[in-house]
Each structure stands twice: as structure tokens, then as C-alpha cells.
Amino acid sequence: YPRYSVVGDHLSGEHHLKIQRAELQDDAVYECQAIQAAIRSRPARLTV
Prior knowledge:
The chain is mostly beta strands.
């Protein structure tokens, strides 16, 4: 996924999904799954 990247202050645990040139196919619900299974991020809805 070359248009997707994770940005933020990783040392303090701040992570953000960055999508460059969002397209209709990016319209979805996103959720962080790169952390412990017991701790889940809230889903985020991207509408294009």
C-alpha cells in the first residue's frame, strides 16, 4: 500500500494513519491492530 503510512511521535505511542490521494476504494472503517490484542483502538470511518 504505497499511499498508506503511519506517522506521529512513535516514542510517545502516538500513531496516525496517513492516506495520500484518498480514493473511493479507501472508503472504509479503519482500526489499529498493531498493538496488544487486549487494547484496541476505536474504529475510524473514512468517507470519500
